[in-house]
């Protein structure tokens, strides 16, 4: 089953310095029928004004992944990490038993746009940890490039405490990629830019999403070009 969620169906909030779009229940938005998809609990598309951000705040028992699409995002946490995340990099933080962190846009004049995803970990009580990895942006071209994974983590793929793999892709006009998944798992697909068609039947545009179950073979094609994220998730 492929269920489409248009960009306009997301909950949007505008706080002036922060514009947010929530794909699942979060903060002031609560829908008991839209709590998550498998272990994917949060998928936020945030825009933060220059020299603004989220001050120090706590998290626990959650795997948090951030991907910057434009601009830069400065991370600082209670375990001593302080780094700036830019396009071409991915950040993974395991909140575990508890961590305090802040996220701010250090630029004096450029807005930052980033995606932040929260996943339930596959075990509780982990020690907090953090890593930031750069990936080969050329490897996105007409390819599904893994950037976060439990099974395949390496020097360019961030490790996560959940049986999932997060891929990024940039398709040129007229190109396609195929994805084959083990039975019983789920796929979440989010179009960052452009337009794609899934299995010749389902059309998605910029910021649209698809929640996919009981489909083991997926073809993703574009007529005009697209960038997107695909997440291979366990079926729980």
TrEMBL record:
Annotated Pirin N-terminal domain residues: 13-118
Cofactor names: Fe cation
Keywords for this protein: Iron, Metal-binding
Domain Quercetin 2,3-dioxygenase C-terminal cupin: 147-233
Family named by the database record: Belongs to the pirin family.
Cofactor binding comment, as recorded: Binds 1 Fe cation per subunit.
Protein name, per record: Pirin family protein
Binding site for Fe cation: 57, 59, 101, 103
A single MF term (Gene Ontology): metal ion binding
Taxonomic path: Bacteria, Bacillati, Bacillota, Bacilli, Bacillales
Species of origin: Paenibacillus montanisoli
